[in-house]
C-alpha cells in the first residue's frame, strides 16, 4: 500500500511518452520549479497520517515528472522526519543528468527510474522528450547515481512492440543495464490505454524474450490495483482518483464494493460515468478504462 505525494501539477513533464496512461503531455518543460510550497505538502501529509497508518511506503510521484519539483530534496527530508516508513521516488529518469537532481534523490530509500531506450533514436521514438533532454546525458546520470545511491534501485523497462522488443534492441539495453548498479529490473507493457492509439502491445513471446535477456521480472499482467479515497461521496471519490490515475471497470467495481455499495448503486454510478462529459471512457484489451479529463 503506497501513500502517494505529488509535488507537481498534472501533465507537467519533460517527456510525452507514446505509452503514457494519462495521455499526451499538456505542459512540456525541462525547468525545475517549486510548483507548490513544501510546507503546504507537508501540512497535508501531517493531516493524513494523523488518522491513517494503512500504508507501507510513501511514494513521491505525479501525473508528470516529479523531479521537476525544485525542492524535491527538502520534501523528501521533511517526509522522513514524519515517518519511519520508506520514501520512494518514481521517475522517468530524464533529469538524472542534472547533478542537483541526483543529490536530491540520494535522500530517498527506494528509487524507481525508467530505462526503456537504448539509443537516441529509440529514446525519441518512445518518449518524445523536451528538446534539451538528451538520452546519453540522462543515461550517464543514472549510471553515476547508481554507484553512489545507498537505497534500493528498481529499474522499470516499458516494452513497446517494434521499438525495443527485438533481440538486437534488448541486447543493447542489457549492455546499458550492465553498467548500472541496480537491485531489480521490472519489465512492463502498457496495461492501460496509451497516449497514442497506434501503440502495439508486445505479445507474450516478446515479454518472455525480454525477461530472458534482461534477467528481470515481468509485471505486465498486474492490471488491477486497489484504490481508496477520503471523499465520502462515492461518485466524487471515483472522480478524484481518475483525475490522477485511470481506473478500469473492475477497479471501480472493487472500489465501490469496498464501500458496501449495492449492485444497483454500482450500476447507477457506471451509467452516470457514461454520461459525464468530464470522463473519457476507453475500450482497451477487452475492458473499459475511465480517465478524468478535468
TrEMBL record:
Domain Radical SAM core: 1-220
Required cofactor(s): [4Fe-4S] cluster
UniProt keyword list: 4Fe-4S, Iron, Iron-sulfur, Metal-binding, S-adenosyl-L-methionine
The name this protein goes by in its record: Radical SAM protein
Annotated signal peptide: none
Top-level division of the source organism's lineage: Bacteria
